[in-house]
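Q: How do we represent a protein-ligand complex in a form that can be generated cell by cell?
A: Start from the inputs.
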Amino acid sequence: MANVTVVDHPLVQHKLTIMRDKGTSTAGFRRLLKEISHLLCYEVTRNLELTTKRIETPLMEMDAPTLEGKKLVFASVLRAGNGLLEGMLDLVPAARVAHIGLYRDHETLEAVEYYFKAPGELDNRLVIVVDPMLATANSAIAAVEKLKERGANNLRFVCLLAAPEGIENFGRAHPDVPVYTAAIDSHLNEKGYIVPGLGDAGDRMYGTK
Ligand code: URA
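Then emit the C-alpha cells for the protein with uracil bound:
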C-alpha cells in the first residue's frame, strides 16, 4: 500500500468542488488548479531539509534558514502535469523541471515513452512528480520507473485526485514513493475515468475534447 497523504485543507476541498463542477469554465478550472497546486506544494515540501547561511539584515548579522542541497526537480507527466507544474514553480521558482511524455500502446497496453528531458544529477535531488489524475496509475508508474532508470532515488508523487485502484497499483510498484492527493474518489469506471472525478483533466484545462 502506498504511503498516502490526503491534503484535506478546507481551501483545497472548496476549490476542488468548484473544479469538479462541469459548469466551471476552462479559465476557472485552470486558475483553480494553479491555486490548489500552491497548497499541495506547501504540503509536499513541508519537511525539506534546511541549513543556515550568514546574512546581514539592516540591524545585524544572523545565520538564517535556507533550503539545503541541490535544487529540487518537478517532473511533469505530459500534458496534464503542466497544470500542477505552473503553480509549483510559483512557490519554488529555482526548481529544475523534467518533462515526461508517455502514450499507451493500444496492443500491449504498455506506457511508451515519446519524450524525456530532465536535469542532470537526479540521484542528488528530490524529484516531485506531478500529474493531476492517479487513475490506473500506469503512466505514473512508468514515469517514476523512467526517472529511477536515470538515477532518481528520492521521489514524491503529487496529484489532485486518486482512485483506490491507482493508489493500490502505484504502491505495489513504488512503495518507496509517497503520494500526496487532494482526494481519494470512489472507483474507476470501465473507461478508466475516476468517479465521481472531474472528467478529463487535460481537456478541462485546455478546452479540448
Ligand atoms: N485522466 C483524467 O484526466 N481523468 C480521469 O478521470 C482519469 C484519467
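The chain has a mean pLDDT of 95. Helices lie at 10-20, 26-44, 81-91, 138-149, 164-173, 201-206.
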